[in-house]
Specification:
alpha/beta, Maf protein, 7-stranded mixed beta sheet, 6 helices, binds inosine 5'-triphosphate
């Protein structure tokens, strides 16, 4: 069975391939088909997008929508993560966080995978909690907020880890693992 992953983001494809590659009987194919991203929660964005795509291609398809949420900023940048990264960037975020110390720097990444086939839509969620670092720290290249996020139980930022290390604990890993369990059960029915 072939399942399509609609995204224009190569980082996501790399992480998803690492996680889903050992699923026997399922082939994942990344496709860059644009879909409308409504303004709303991650759940609403994924559900609307994947329904639209399924109506369009009539093949099993999934999307993954994620965001970075800073608790003391009431969840900002959240569903605006991409725009905020492209405008004020990590430096702007660190500036907003200047007066906050310790526990006040709590943040999390959340991912929602939306899958749709002839049986309808299913959503799978994953969260990784941690803190906003005091400075930008990256080993070479870090994707977006990776260089200012330290996951719980770590001293390094996501951007100081290898893709494999990050992918063991990431929000995307957790959402995709839940999706993978669902697919395994579906295949054995
Ligand atoms: P597609 O919609 O084409 O899949 P996108 O880059 O728009 O790709 P999202 O809307 O899911 O992806 O993610 C919104 C933003 O959240 C993304 O552009 C990053 O700035 C940030 N983000 C998501 N996951 C991240 C991660 O693992 N590490 C760092 N930043 C991340």
């Amino acid at each position: 069975m072939r399942i399509y992953f609609a995204t224009g983001n190569p980082h996501k494809v790399k992480e998803a391939e690492l996680i889903l590659k050992d699923l026997e009987g399922i082939e994942i194919e990344a496709v860059d088909i644009p879909y409308p991203e409504i303004q709303g929660t991650l759940e609403e964005v994924s559900e609307f997008g994947v329904k639209y795509l399924y109506r369009k291609i009539k093949k099993p398809v999934f999307v993954e929508d994620s965001g970075f949420f800073i608790e003391v900023l009431k969840g900002f940048p959240g569903t605006y993560s991409r725009y905020v990264q492209e405008t004020i960037g990590n430096r702007g975020i660190l500036k907003l966080m200047e007066d906050f110390k310790g526990e006040e720097r709590r943040a999390y990444f959340k991912s929602v995978v939306g899958y749709c086939d002839e049986e309808g839509v299913r959503l799978f969620k994953g969260v990784v909690r941690g803190w906003v670092s005091y400075e930008i720290r990256s080993k070479g290249y870090g994707f977006a907020y990776d260089s200012i996020f330290i996951p719980e139980g770590e001293n390094r930022t996501f951007a100081e880890m290898t893709t494999e290390e990050k992918s063991r604990i990431s929000h995307r890993r957790r959402a995709l693992e839940a999706f993978k369990d669902y697919l395994k059960k579906k295949l054995s029915r």
